Amino acid sequence: MIIGLTGGIASGKSTVSNLLRSHGLPVVDADIIARQVVEQGHPAYEKIVEQFGEDILDEARNIDRKKLGSIVFTNEEKRMVLNGIVHPAVRMGMKNEAAAHLKDGHPHVVLDIPLLFESELTHMVDRTLLVFVDEEIQLRRLMDRDGFTEAEAKSRIAAQMPLKDKVQLADAVIMNTGSLEELKDKVETQLREWNMI
Ligand SMILES: CC(C)(COP(=O)(O)OP(=O)(O)OC[C@H]1O[C@@H](n2cnc3c(N)ncnc32)[C@H](O)[C@@H]1O)[C@@H](O)C(=O)NCCC(=O)NCCS
Ligand SMILES: Nc1ncnc2c1ncn2[C@@H]1O[C@H](COP(=O)(O)OP(=O)(O)OP(=O)(O)O)[C@@H](O)[C@H]1O
Question: Which residues of the sequence carry a binding annotation for ATP (predicted)?
C-alpha cells in the first residue's frame, strides 16, 4: 500500500514522517527530492536560472532558496512557473524511490507530499493521511521554526489550499494540536487501524 502523507506547511508532516520511520516504514520526502532536482547540473536548475535570472544565485552559483522563496511566495504567477519546472522532476523522483522500496520487499511506502491535493497527485497513492493543525498553531510553529515574520509566514500558508478544505479530501486525519506524546499515540492508532503494524 502507498500512503500519501500531507498537510499544510509546518503542520507536522516531517514530525509524523519520523514517527512512521520509527515503525519501520520507508518514507519518500517530496521536499528533499525538490531540493535535489534543482542542484547545479540538473536540467531543472538551468530552466530556473533562465526564468528567474542570475539574481537568485548565491556566490557558489547555487540557488538561494530564501531569495527564490521571497519571489514565489508573493507572486502566484511566478510560483506556477517554478512549480511547472520542478514538479515533473519531483514526481519522477518519487516514483523511482517508491518503486525501489517496494522492490526491496517493503509492503508499504509513505510518500510525504505537501501539495498532494493542490497538484492532484492522489492517483499516485492508495490512501491519504492528513496532518491537521488550526491556523493559529500553524502560524506560530512556522514563525518559531523558520524565524519568518508574520507576513512571510502568512504568505506561505496562503500559497496552499486551506487545511480545513484538505480535511474533506483526506481518508484519515491526524490532529497535531496537542503534545508530541499525543501525536505519537495518534500515529500508532492510525497505523493499527490500517493494519500496517
Ligand atoms: C520556493 C523554495 C525555493 C523555498 O525553499 P525553502 O528551502 O525555503 O522551503 P522548502 O523547500 O523546505 O519548503 C517548505 C515548505 O513550503 C511549502 N512549499 C514549498 N513550495 C511550495 C509551493 N510551490 N507552493 C506551495 N507551498 C510550497 C511546503 O509546505 C514545503 O514543505 C522551494 O520551496 C521550492 O523550490 N518550491 C517549489 C517546489 C515545490 O513545490 N516543493 C514542495 C513540494 S514538491
Ligand atoms: N505536537 C507538536 N508540539 C509542538 N511542536 C510541534 C508539534 N508537532 C510539530 N511541532 C513543531 O512544529 C514545527 C513544524 O513541524 P514539521 O517541521 O514536522 O512540519 P512540516 O509539516 O513537515 O513542515 P513543512 O511543510 O515546512 O515541511 C517543527 O518545529 C516541529 O518541531
Answer: 10-15
